[in-house]
From TrEMBL:
Heme binds at C464. Belongs to the cytochrome P450 family. Keywords: Heme, Iron, Membrane, Metal-binding, Monooxygenase, Oxidoreductase, Transmembrane, Transmembrane helix. It comes from Fonsecaea multimorphosa CBS 102226. The chain crosses the membrane at residues 20-43. The keyword Heme applies. Its cofactor is heme. This is Cytochrome P450.
Length: 532
């Protein structure tokens, strides 16, 4: 009986009522979603607290606009254009405003501002230690407490205790440049600069050079790993937190995202490797000298809340951020000097003058000597102003009670960000020629006021912890390089290319190097380079 009834139903086919019930549900869901989207758009455009902040329509209703901007690798160019069009406040997401008012730097980023980091930062986390790392830790109290553990390790005085090891890297770099000069070869100068900065990290943190310069290759595929992981991380940072797991899961279908994940895994593995290797060396008594890794282990002895995973975190972050940021800065300085021969000639003349008066050490220029050259310091600041190493905004939550920024009140919880690559072009601070490379502005202008409005190392309690390493590397390498060699672009009319995925990396700096006669010092100083 039951089988007969079932056969009858199947043979008669679905009734019109059945068809309606099958189609009503999906149609209803589509209509519901459509109504929700219409309601969301109306809310964002009319009732949202940021509704009257100008900006692209698409940005006001969805974070997909900022995601597309970041994915393009040209977010800083887009933001500069938008601020020229709309003014100091531009809505770049439904809940976020980009700020281009230099006075807002103190309001948002000063130590006691009360503004806190948003959920933009966790995708950068190595996730090795339960305590997190200095950069991605969102809790300000925990961040302040844990940064105290290592602040002295990153002080300039501590870094300069290892100055001779930076000199060792410079020696290898100069020897390689001498070979290049003799051969008359064209080189990718940007690549050589990154090899130098990576080898310095190896010396300072792990007790020896990695061998980038010596072997002229990407040791451990660290550079390749960074280049593949950053686009994926940068995109994840600007997506809503609830979408990130979906982005990661679906992203595994695409080779670029898989490469990004693999790249991060390799950087994490490197941090663990060097830390574990040092533990073994300490146990066997084969540690040859004191370096930063050794100092981190001493913190472990003194602080109960500091463990091996925290040291692995520091090692991972050093590899992740210690090279790219400094290499970007040095590239910018040398590139702009090569583009403007008058500025290059003026700097070389200053170096020669100091050299002729025995104010520069031989065979190595001390950091303390380098920073006494005013035009050199001006060139370094100007290079970092025009092209800061980080090219995206640094978002913060407005604190309880709200805040007034650029003449507008922002309620608590609003997201605001300043992009150094935008605010560094402000004409009210840096002059009408803010778009030009002009080191003299730091000598003839109000240098103190300009310094207050520079964000190339971040600001307040979140200032880049490795700032002093970067400053030492650039102020030592550049004058040493230029007192020995003449360097020029092979095609001065050709512009470099940049890709901005948080670190705003430049490529295409093709150059030729030849030895100088005046001030030239005998090379061949590097000797052997310790094997990794």
């Amino acid at each position: 009986m039951a089988l007969g009834t079932l056969a009858s139903i199947l043979s008669s086919g679905p009734s019109s009522d059945t068809l309606w019930s099958w189609t009503a549900l999906p149609v209803g869901l589509v209509l519901l979603c459509l109504l929700y989207e219409i309601g969301w758009i109306i809310y964002c455009r009319v009732w949202h607290p940021l509704a009257n902040v100008p900006g692209p329509f698409a940005a006001s209703i969805s974070r997909l606009w900022i995601a597309a901007s970041v994915a393009s690798g040209r977010a800083e160019h887009v933001q500069r254009m938008l601020h020229q069009q709309y003014g100091p406040l531009v809505r770049i997401a439904p809940d976020e405003v980009s700020v281009a008012d230099p006075q807002a730097i103190k309001t948002i980023y000063s130590i006691k501002s009360g503004f806190t980091k948003t959920d933009f930062y966790p995708p950068f986390a190595p996730n090795i230690s339960l305590h997190g790392d200095h950069f991605t830790q969102l809790d300000e109290t925990i961040h302040a407490e844990r940064r105290k553990y290592v602040n002295s390790i990153y002080s300039m005085s501590t870094i300069l205790e290892s100055e001779q090891y930076i000199d060792g890297c410079i020696d290898v770099f100069l020897d390689k440049m001498a070979q290049v000069a003799r051969q008359g070869k064209e080189i990718d100068l940007g690549e050589w600069i990154q090899w130098y900065t990576f080898d310095v990290i190896g010396e300072l943190f792990f007790g020896h050079q990695f061998g980038f310069l010596r072997d002229e290759h990407d040791y451990g595929r660290y550079i390749e790993s960074l280049d593949t992981l950053l686009p994926g991380i940068a995109l994840s940072c600007v997506l809503p937190a609830y979408i990130r797991p979906l982005h990661s899961s679906l992203g595994m279908l695409f080779s670029t995202i898989r490469d990004s994940v693999k790249g991060f895994d390799e950087i994490r593995a490197a941090g663990r490797y060097w830390t574990n290797l040092r533990q073994q060396q300490m146990q066997s008594g084969s540690v040859e000298r004191v370096d930063l890794l050794d100092k981190f282990f001493k913190v472990k002895e003194d602080k109960a809340g500091w463990d091996v995973q925290d040291i692995q975190n520091e090692a991972c972050v050093a590899i992740f951020a210690g090279s790219d940021t400094t290499a970007i800065a040095i590239r910018s300085i040398l590139y702009h000097l090569m583009k403007d021969r008058a500025c290059m000639d003026k700097l070389v003349a200053e170096i020669d003058d100091f050299d002729s008066r025995d104010l520069l050490g031989k065979p190595h220029i001390r950091y303390a000597e380098a920073i006494k050259m005013p035009y050199l310091v001006a060139c370094c600041k100007e290079g970092m102003r025009l092209h800061p190493s980080v090219g995206l905004g640094m978002p913060r939550h407005v604190p309880p009670g709200g805040a007034t920024i650029a003449g507008r009140y922002f309620p608590a919880g609003s997201r605001v960000s300043i992009n150094a690559a935008v605010v560094h072009y402000d004409q009210s601070v840096f002059g009408q020629d803010a778009h030009r490379f002009n080191p003299d502005r730091w000598i003839d202008g109000n240098a103190a006021a300009m310094d207050r409005h520079m964000l190339h190392f971040g600001g307040g309690s979140r200032t880049c912890i490795g700032k002093n390493i970067s400053l030492a590397e650039m102020h030592k390498l550049i004058p040493e390089f230029l007192r020995r060699f003449h360097v020029e672009l092979t095609d001065p009319a050709k512009e470099w290319k940049t890709q901005n995925f948080w670190f705003n990396k430049q490529t295409g700096i093709r150059a030729r190097v030849r030895a100088r006669q005046r001030g030239q010092i005998a090379l061949g100083l590097s000797g052997g380079v310790p094997s990794p």
